What we know:
By secondary structure, the protein is mostly helical. Helix content is 41%, strand content 5%. The protein has a two-stranded antiparallel sheet with strand order 1-2.
Amino acid sequence: MRFERITHNPAIMGGKACIRGMRVTAGMVLGLLASGHSRERILEAYPYLEAEDIDAVLHYAAWRLQEQEAPCG
C-alpha cells in the first residue's frame, strides 16, 4: 500500500516512517495522540503539520498493525 504523506528515507530519522520527508516521525505523532493530546493541540505545537498528516499517521498505523492469520499446526 502506498501512503503519499508517509515517507521512508534512510538519511532522515534512520529511515523511520516520517511525515512528508520532515524530521517528524509517524510514531511521535501517534504517541502524542495515544497520550491524550488532541489533534488541535498537535497542530498548534507543530504548525508545519496539517490535519491530513494526522489522518495519514492513523491510516498508516492501522495498516501496519493489521492482524495476519497464522496457519495452525
